[in-house]
Amino acid sequence: MGTSNCSDDFKRDAVHHITASGLRNLGLSEEELASFSDPFREGMMQEDRLRRLGDRRKSNWLDTVIEGGPIWSGNVASAAHSESVKADQTDDETSVKTATTVHAMVLLYAQERKDVETKTKEIEKLLTNQNVAIVHSLPLVLDVEEGRNFSREHFGFADGISQPIPYDEPRADSKKTSAVEVDGKLALEPDPVRGVRLGEILLGHVNGHQEIPPGPMVRDIADNPLPEQNDALVFRDLGRNGSYMVVRQLHQDVPAFWKGMQEAASTLCKQDSEAKDVDATWVAEKMVGRGVDGCGLRPEGRIPNGPNGEIDNGFRYFDEDRHVTGCPLGSHVRRSNPRDSLAPKEDMKQTLSDAANNHRILRRARKYGTKIENKLEDDGKERGLLFICLNTDIARQFEFTQQTWLMNSDFSTLYEETDPLIGPDGEMAIPVEPLRYRAKVKTFVKLVGGEYFFLPSVNGLRYLAAL
Fold first, then answer.
1. Contact, 338 vs 405, CB < 8 A?
2. Under 8 Å CB-to-CB from 56, ≥6 apart: which residues?
3. What is the Cα 40 distance to its own chain's centre?
4. Contact between residue 300 and residue 309 where contact means Cβ atoms under 8 Å apart
5. Cα dist. 197→68, 168, 215, 272, 354 in Å?
6. Whole-number Å distance between alpha carbons of 361 and 246
7. If you write DSSP's letter for every residue of 52-107 in order, what string do you get?
8. Which of 105, 109, 267, 391 is buried deepest, with most CB atoms within 10 A?
9. How far is CA 348 from CA 174, 334, 352, 448, in A?
C-alpha cells in the first residue's frame, strides 16, 4: 500500500491496483488468469524478466539492485506453485521469491498530508476487518514548484517533463468520435512529436499497430457491470478502459551521485585543459540529457522555453542535435525516448519517430523520503523514487525500453556503455568539439522492489468487488 501527497487535480482520491497473485486470491480461475498478458502472469521477479530488466543474471543480483535483492514483489509465479518450495525460489527455479508479498496496492491522493493520514487509517481499519494486512507503505510526495509545472526528484532535476499525448481516431463501429480530450478539444489527430494512440495507454482501444490490444476476459456473473461481448456470450471484457501498471521502488544515493559527478568533472578537466565549463552540474546534465530546470540540451545551449514559460518538449533530435554534441546519445532521456534520433537519413525521420512512439509509456512517478539538506553528505535517510507507468503491452513498451534502449550496452552506435543514470558502473561518451570525453559513472539508483499490476476500470473494480 502506498500513500501520496500531491498537487494534482485530485482533491481526495484512491486508485487500486492488483497483482496476478492478488487476482488469484480474489477468486479468478486459472482459465481467466490465462487471458491476462504473459509478463503480468509471470511477474517481474521471473528470471527471464529480471535479466531483460537488468536486475539479475546467472542467478546473481546485479549492482543495480539493493544488497540481498528486492524486498517486495507480488511473488506471482510462486503463488501458482505448491508451497513445498525452497525459501528463495519456486520449484522450477525460474522465479525469485521476495520476503514480502504484495497482492494489491492503493495509491491515496490528497492536497494535504493530514488528509492522506486520515484516509490511511480509515482504509487500514476496513482492511483489518477483512483480514487483510498492510505489508509495505511509502509516504510519497509531488511538490510542484510555484510557477512551474514540475516537481524535482532527489538528484535535483525537474521530473516528469516528457509524456505522450494520446489521441483516438473515430472508429467505424463506434458512435463516439473520440474518447480523448486535450485542452478541452477532442483529440482526433496525433501530436506531431508526442502523439500516441489511446490503445497504448488503455485496453480496449486501437493501439499504434492499428489493433485493439487483447484484454483479460472473465466469466459472466449476475448483475455484471462489465459490457457484453457479442462474440463471447459467456465472457465479459474485464480489461476495457483498464491498463497494466509497472511499479518499481528505486533507491537514490544522492551524495554518491554528486560526488561521482565531481570526480568525473575533475578527471575530464585534467585530461583537457580547455574544459573550462566542465563541472559537476555540466556532467550531470549530460548524463540526464536535460538541464536541471528540465530544458532539453542542444549544441548551442538549452532549448528555450515556450511563449508562456513552459518547457518546450516538442523538439526533434535529428534537426536539433543530429551529431549529439548537445544531448549525448547515451544520456538517460535520449535513450528512454530517442524520438527521431535513430533515423539514418532525413527522409526516415518521421518513420523512426513513429516507431519510437510505439514504445512510449505514460509515466506517473512519485518520490519518497525527505529532501536532503547537503547533497554531498550522507544523512543515512532512505529516499528515492516510486517509478509508476501505464501501458497496455508490458513487453513492447516498458520492457522494450528498459532492455533495448536503457540497458543495451551497444545502443545505436554506442559501444560498451549502458544508461548512466540507472545502469551499472561503466563509462559514458560525451561528444564535444573537437574531442569526445569518456566520463566514468557509477550505480546511483538501485531497485528495492517492484511488480506488474492490473489497473481495472471503475466497472472492472465493481466486478471484482462482486466476486
1. yes
2. 47, 50, 62, 65, 69, 96
3. 15
4. no
5. 40, 6, 16, 47, 11
6. 10
7. HHTSEETTEE-TTB-TTS-SEE--HHHHTS-S-S-SSB-TTS-BB--SEE-SEEEE
8. 391
9. 34, 18, 6, 40
Which of the residue ranges 118-122, 198-202, 287-291 would you say has the lowest mean pLDDT? Answer: 118-122
Show Cβ contacts of residue 386 under 8 Å, excluding neighbours closer than 6 positions.
Answer: 2, 138, 140, 247, 248, 249, 250, 365, 366, 367, 368
The pLDDT, as a whole number, for residue 79 is 61
Tens digits of residue pLDDT in 295-354: 999 998 899 988 888 899 999 999 989 999 999 999 999 999 999 999 999 999 999 999
Long-range contacts of 320-326 (CB under 8 A, 24+ apart): 320/296, 321/297, 323/299, 323/431, 324/431, 325/299, 325/431, 325/432, 325/433, 326/297, 326/298, 326/299, 326/300, 326/301
Residue 419 burial by Cβ neighbours in a 10 Å radius (0-12, 13-18, 19+) = buried
**Do 284 and 261 form a contact (C-beta atoms < 8 A)?**
yes
Judged against a pLDDT cut of 70, whether residue 15 lies above it is answered with: no
Residue 91's pLDDT band, with cuts at 50, 70 and 90, is very low
Question: Residue 351 has what pLDDT?
Answer: 94
- On the question of pLDDT at 176 being above 90, the answer is no
Q: Which three cell numbers stand for residue 236?
A: 465479459
The H or E element that residue 451 is part of is strand 445-455
- Separation CA 313–CA 306 (nearest Å): 9
What is the predicted pLDDT for the residue at 87? 44
Label residues 283-307 b or e (16+ Cβ within 10 Å = b). bbbbbbbbbebbbbbbeeebbeeee
Q: Residue 420: its pLDDT value, please?
A: 96
Specify the pairing of strand 217-219 against strand 56-57. Answer: unpaired
Whether residue 347 contacts residue 118, with contact meaning beta carbons closer than 8 Å, is answered with: no
Whether residue 39 has pLDDT greater than 50: yes
Q: Strands 445-455 and 181-182: what pairing?
A: unpaired
pLDDT (0 to 100) of residue 9:
35
Calpha distance 398→250 (Å, rounded): 16
Q: Please count the other Cβ atoms lying within 10 Å of the Cβ belonging to residue 203.
A: 28
Note whether 211 and 199 are within 8 A (CB). Answer: yes
Q: Which of 140, 187, 192, 148 is nearest to 166 (CA)?
A: 187
Q: Measured between alpha carbons, how far is residue 26 from residues 90, 303, 373, 467 in Å?
A: 22, 50, 45, 7
Contact 199, 208 (CB under 8 A): yes
Mean pLDDT of 46-71: 96
- How many Å apart are CA 127 and CA 330, to the nearest integer? 46
- Integer distance in angstroms from the first to the last C-alpha of the chain? 22
The rounded mean pLDDT for the chain is 88
